[in-house]
Amino acid sequence: MSWMASARHGVREAPAGLALLQELLNTRPPMAYGTDLLMEVDDAQRWLTEALATWSHISGLPAPTLLLSSSDLRSLRRLRSTFENVMLASGGPAGSLPPADVPVSLVPDADGWVRIVPTGRGTRWLASALWAEALLAQQAGLWPRLKLCNNIECRAAFFDTSRNNSGVWHDVSTCGNTANLRAFRERRRLMGGSGALPPRPTVQGPPSLI
Predict the structure, then answer these.
(1) Does residue 206 surpass a pLDDT of 50?
(2) How many C-beta neighbours within 10 Å does residue 31 have?
């Protein structure tokens, strides 16, 4: 059984190490069902172990073994909310969010390329890795395509692959249709219930020859 969070929401995985940040965001329960993976230590531990193994494979960097406690879960939930606020503030005024107080190391590899390597212990290491991946995604131009679903009852983190980066729903057939129906009902309420469902299109046959 996979404990990857994004798979529960049925979303496309973000490329490279950005998938780790997407994973954290998607630990929230899918819609009105499912569980928050950061509420119970056992669930969070299974999720984090698998997520870090996947990140390590993608990034080529070693990931420490993090053993979580109840206090760690509170830290992870705060970190999740922080990144949600960062994403929602994209395009807003500069300086509206506090700085991320996390360390990273700049390490040259054998080819002379400088890499950003997470440092720290426990959840501080995880925070370092997540902020580093956010920075790398911004430098690569990937950051604007990681979005939160516009359905406030969903808020799944999805990677927008549309040509013009115009996607707003993690799944148009579910959240998109739900939002359209909610908007229609609100318009109908404001009109005193006089609104009607749009008529179904009719198919006309060939003109009569009689």
Answers:
(1) no
(2) 16
